[in-house]
Amino acid sequence: MDVQRDFCPGGSLAVKDGDKVVPGLNRLMAEFEKHRLPIFFTRDWHPPDHISFKDQGGIWPPHCVQGTPGAEFHPGLRIPSGAIVISKGDNPKAEAYSGFQGTDLAGMLKKAGVDEIILGGLTTDYCVRESALDAQRAGFKVEVVEDCIRAVNAMPGDGAKAIADIRKAGAKMTTSSAAIRRLAGTQQ
Prior knowledge:
Elements: H1 22-34, E1 40-44, E2 84-88, H2 105-111, E3 116-122, H3 124-137, E4 141-150, H4 158-168, E5 172-174, H5 176-184
Parallel strand pairs: 1-2, 3-4, 4-5
């Protein structure tokens, strides 16, 4: 979810330690590739006049504006050649935290034979939370990789509250190591 430059240190909406999710996600994706499992990336892809921006009455500074360096994925994040990129938040008049909102992500996942999602990225309290909840509502089993998420914490405790909401909805929390072991079919 949204591991973009603007959400990482130095970005316009930087999340503390946002770049720290990259190594675990890369390891997890390598395991997905070994098993030929589909990999989907979401990204904020906002027009310059997006409703979420302060100049438009929103709460956020401009971020992830289409075609800008801030909208690019973190340079350390490895994008596998067969990965599918889902752009969200591209309607200037609509907020879209979830990767399912205003996209055909659910249909694409179902077409790919996916019934379970392993989710990581930025930010725990907005895009990860909303995507995990929407995935649950769409009938997918969801695991959120706790060491591969970070919260913006606009209000103190937002990240912890988001994790509680995700659990309450029936999604499970895991770690990248546990998810990799499960995918590899080993128990340690």
